[in-house]
Amino acid sequence: MRFMPCAFASFLALRGGQLGLAAATPPRNGSIANSPPEPRLDGKITPKVMIVNMAIQFAPEAQVWYDNMPLNSHGNLLAVNITIPGLSPRYPHVHCREDLQVCQVTTCEGEINAASSAMALLLSPKFNLTKTYFLLAGIAGANPKYSTIGGVALARYTVQVALQYEFDAREMPDNFTTGYVAYGTTQPEEYPKILYGTEVFEVSNALRDAAFNYAVRANLSDNEDSKKYRARYKPEGNIFAKASSGPEVVKCDTVTSDVYYSGTLLSEAFERTTGVWTNGTGRYCMTAQEDNAVLGSLVRMAVYGAVDFSRVVVMRTGSNFDRPPPNVTAYEHLLVLKQNGFEVAIQNLYLAGIEIVNGILKDWGAVFDKGIKPCNYIGDVLGSLGGEPDFGPGSETKGVGFRPPGNSTTRAIV
């Protein structure tokens, strides 16, 4: 989750949406106003799609779905509300449509919140998620080289760029380009020699392509205020051509950091980190705080067959830029000027996302029930799900993947 403080204040003042979108009137602290009682479940809920939002104060990322799905005859996500132990106290429910085919959960911001909430959901006995598609949907900071305010990005890689040694830039060696150095190394821009296992995740490129083909059908939202801030990037010429143009759906990758960084030097440093850690194949275009945390939980449960990691879509929309335009300081860009991207980012999160959700439902029998076979490696840097990662030092298990206790050659002690 990334948002600009000034933009958020502007959003709260809104009294109506654009392009048929309802204004957000979110419940406080996760409470459900006038909702039906929690259902008595005879069996496990088996949703076809689980929307995973990250939230900000009052949760507009989720509220835009609650408000606009009924408005556009796509069902009511607040029809069924299930309390799940272990979710954020602010967002303690999973919400589902009447037919239980589409559900939604809010993790709360940051890596710890996201991992905890995701694992609580995945371990809940109330759900069978073995065939569920997960749509991670949040707003983000956009790299002006590849996207813009209101732009939509679908990722193949997510990179936990802040998982490094850090020097204050004022104390780093004179020959360093950045104060970030990978674990176990002594220079910037080297591959980590000490891996935690969450540095890089790769999702199905074939599913991303399918999601892209649905998302591009959306009539994305825009407004004059957003256009004015984009125009500040025009003097940079072709390098920031995407920044100064209108919103569109693109394929590029996300980086994860709990530190809300901003500025050209840090953003370019993490661009280089993304390139090194994905063996030159990743292209960083969106900043986030939660993606690697949620994907880490999904990989761990996929090892046990509780979820299918080939059924994960990572989508982010740009609410602000990760670095300033020409003649603007990083401080002014982050904390003073209004980038005016929050409204269009929230709207386009829904507009592109609902196309993906509806596409999966419409083509369920023909395509998505049996799944789309990945054409690339999927999983983490360790090779936890089997296969050889196309980045990093290679599989820790020689391509076999980790096995649950009882299915391996070693004796499990319970």
From TrEMBL:
InterPro entries: Nucleoside_phosphorylase_sf, Pur_nuclsid_perm. Residues 1-24 form the signal peptide. It comes from the Eukaryota. Pfam families: NUP. Keywords: Signal. Residues 395-414 are annotated as: Disordered. This is Purine nucleoside permease. It comes from Podospora pseudocomata.
